[in-house]
Amino acid sequence: MRDIIIIGAGVSGTACARELSRYKLDILVVESREDVCCGTSKANSAIVHAGFDAKTDSLMAKLNVIGNAMMDKLCKELDIKFQRNGSLVVCYSENDIEKLEELKNRGIANGVNGLRIVYKDELNKMEQNISEKAVAALYAPSGGIICPFDLNIGMAENAAANGVEFIFDCEVKKINKGDSFYELETSMGILKSKLVINAAGVYADVFHNMVSSKKIHITPRRGVYCLLDKSVGNHVKSTCFSLPDEVYGKGVLVTPTVDGNLLVGPTATDIADKEDTATTAKEIKELIKKANINVKNIPIKQVITSFAGLRAHEDAGDFIVEEVEDAPGFIDCAGIESPGLTSAPAIGVRVANIVKGILKPKKNENFIGIRKGVLNPDNLSIEERNKLIKEYPAYGNIVCRCETVSEGEIIDAIRRPLGAKTLDGIKRRTRAGAGRCQAGFCTPRSIEILSRELNLPQSKISKCGGKSTLIVGAIKDSL
């Protein structure tokens, strides 16, 4: 019998796991995929929202602002790249400045600091590629950019270091309510726990509805993105949004990333299939059209990949982070769509407070809040780097030329807590395969390293778990 089972190893689930690892609790995270950060958390806008967009007094607005304020300290503790580059919401008509004022006032009511309206001359100095039609923008200096992989993996690794157990490739099929516990029927057998935290993304409604008579409904909202090469990563400095209008809706954002790329997206298409992350020509065409509204001369020919993510949109349009009324001990983290990434640290604290009220746990006096990420030799001086390579020659073997990722970094990514088991797992931890050639060069070598480190034949090494293997056999065996 566990104290807590968390369903889902995305950013909400791992935020809860890390926060709860501050207490003496027996915690298990079950994840249906092969790794952390495999659902919504891996495919989003990679931005930290300031908090002016959500409706005042909504839980979304509250947790957004709290999560934003927590981000600097959290990223320092977990060795994560984070930059407050600011955000701009741009309008194109003098008549729409009033709407910017309304957005500003909402942000102030939500507790966002530093908001101000900037006008054409100042706006053009801030962003030389802003649309020539732009007349003003709402500027939020607290907006930021982050790597969602780093945040998710960092929280998971730190939780694991503090005693949280993770089980992967474990699908929850049914949840049964006991008198004082929950029984989870999974692909790996029966699991029992006093409490369950439902952080299952687009599937959170499925699990909620298994235990509660008060049903909720989540619609997967697909968003398509285009990622551009690092050579054009400085096309904008801030995260640039369009002011919502009747013709184009909210529009798409154009933003730099913490890794130096340019990101454009997302679209918003409500779908029925909770697994449909396909990109379509129609959506990409729509994306490019909308992106060019607020930023000019977007070098769209420098796109190196497109991808899609699913947002978990609950019908009520707000986060649900609470103990279910008719299912004591079952705690929802449901409807966590944008700004879910920003809000995750605050979600973790809110859930921990709910758990503390139920279980009254003692503090974990051995809690360690610091985690070191994969060593990046680029952050070392020439002298330090030469010393590292002399001591560990693998750091001198470049595997991924686009991102200059060494064999040493890949080995570190595999051997560390909750280490990489797939090609995508390596990419999320080191960026090997994330560059211009999109793994065209480094894949064979990465497969070799995974095979050696995991003691598996190369035919068993996959891109993203399951049946996504790349090698079907040796050529000589077919002769």
From TrEMBL:
- Give the InterPro entries listed for this entry: BFD-like_2Fe2S-bd_dom, BFD-like_2Fe2S-bd_dom_sf, FAD-dep_OxRdtase, FAD/NAD-bd_sf, G3P_Oxidase/Oxidoreductase
Task: Enumerate the Pfam families for this protein.
Answer: DAO, Fer2_BFD
Start and end residues of each BFD-like [2Fe-2S]-binding domain: 398-451
Domain FAD dependent oxidoreductase: where?
3-353
Checking SUPFAM superfamilies in the record gives: FAD/NAD(P)-binding domain
UniProt signal peptide: none
Domain of life, per the record? Bacteria
Among PANTHER family, the record links this protein to: GLYCEROL 3-PHOSPHATE OXIDASE, GLYCEROL-3-PHOSPHATE DEHYDROGENASE
Name of the protein = FAD dependent oxidoreductase
